[in-house]
């Protein structure tokens, strides 16, 4: 039976391009279901949480869908389903976000989301465009993305886990910050796989095969 991947629709942008990229990466190996239905999410074999915009707005949109966070937690923590957060979807894994005040996050990976403050004045915020990864770990999703491989970013805030062992790749933009994180069956990337061409598609393909 084909595995079902829940691409969580909670009103955040970039959903269609994320869906197209996942369908392409799946190449018929998985069914990609765009959904906010708690039962569908709770019973999915894998979950992907996209996100574009402000941390507080995305978190409140997630909370506004009855039973959705509980269903995500049941799938991920109760059943061990692999989870991938993308951009703000990764940031929501944090304990809290510090954009427009303090907002509690999912707290699935301890840490906080704070504004990028590059030491180099030439490094603009928002951080937009292609940038090379550094210090890529052996975590299965990111390992084949060699240090120096460019991926596509667009953001002003970054997630800084409390324990740096949860960081699986870094990037430098007038200062170093995490480009990818993972803890157990939960992973996240700050960059956009759906905009990162072959590198992004290969990452999504590995997520669909990941057995944490």
UniProtKB/TrEMBL annotation:
The active site is at residues 87, 192, 194. It holds the Pfam family GATase. It catalyses: 5-[(5-phospho-1-deoxy-D-ribulos-1-ylimino)methylamino]-1-(5-phospho-beta-D-ribosyl)imidazole-4-carboxamide + L-glutamine = D-erythro-1-(imidazol-4-yl)glycerol 3-phosphate + 5-amino-1-(5-phospho-beta-D-ribosyl)imidazole-4-carboxamide + L-glutamate + H(+); L-glutamine + H2O = L-glutamate + NH4(+). The keyword Phosphoprotein does not apply. InterPro entries: Class_I_gatase-like (IPR029062), GATASE (IPR017926), Imidazole-glycPsynth_HisH (IPR010139). One of its GO terms (molecular function) is glutaminase activity. One of its GO terms (cellular component) is cytoplasm. GO terms for biological process: L-histidine biosynthetic process. The keyword Cytoplasm applies. It comes from the Bacteria. Residues 7-207 form the Glutamine amidotransferase domain. Its main location: cytoplasm. It is found in: Cytoplasm. Its EC number is 4.3.2.10, 3.5.1.2. Keywords: Amino-acid biosynthesis, Cytoplasm, Glutamine amidotransferase, Histidine biosynthesis, Hydrolase, Lyase. Pathway: Amino-acid biosynthesis; L-histidine biosynthesis; L-histidine from 5-phospho-alpha-D-ribose 1-diphosphate: step 5/9. Heterodimer of HisH and HisF. HAMAP family: HisH. IGPS catalyzes the conversion of PRFAR and glutamine to IGP, AICAR and glutamate. The HisH subunit catalyzes the hydrolysis of glutamine to glutamate and ammonia as part of the synthesis of IGP and AICAR. The resulting ammonia molecule is channeled to the active site of HisF. This is Imidazole glycerol phosphate synthase subunit HisH. It comes from Phenylobacterium hankyongense. The lineage of its organism: Bacteria, Pseudomonadati, Pseudomonadota, Alphaproteobacteria, Caulobacterales.
């Amino acid at each position: 039976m084909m595995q079902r991947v829940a691409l969580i629709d909670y009103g955040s942008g970039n959903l269609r391009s994320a869906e197209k990229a996942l369908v392409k990466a799946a190449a018929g190996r998985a069914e990609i279901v765009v959904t906010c239905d708690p039962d569908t999410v709770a019973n999915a074999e894998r979950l992907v949480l996209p996100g574009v915009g402000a941390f507080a707005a995305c978190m409140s949109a997630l909370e506004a869908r009855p039973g959705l966070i509980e269903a995500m937690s049941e799938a991920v923590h109760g059943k061990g389903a692999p989870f991938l957060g993308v951009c703000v979807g990764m940031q929501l894994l944090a304990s809290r976000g510090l954009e427009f005040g303090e907002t509690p996050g999912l707290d699935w990976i301890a840490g906080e989301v704070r504004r990028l403050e590059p030491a180099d004045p030439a490094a603009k915020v928002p951080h937009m465009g292609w940038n090379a990864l550094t210090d890529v770990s052996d975590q299965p999703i990111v390992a084949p993305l060699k240090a120096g491989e460019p991926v596509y970013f667009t953001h002003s805030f970054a997630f800084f886990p409390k324990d740096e062992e949860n960081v699986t790749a870094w990037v430098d933009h007038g200062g170093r910050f995490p480009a990818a994180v993972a803890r157990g069956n939960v992973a996240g990337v700050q960059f956009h796989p759906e905009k990162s061409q072959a590198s992004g598609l290969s990452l999504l393909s590995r997520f669909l095969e990941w057995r944490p």
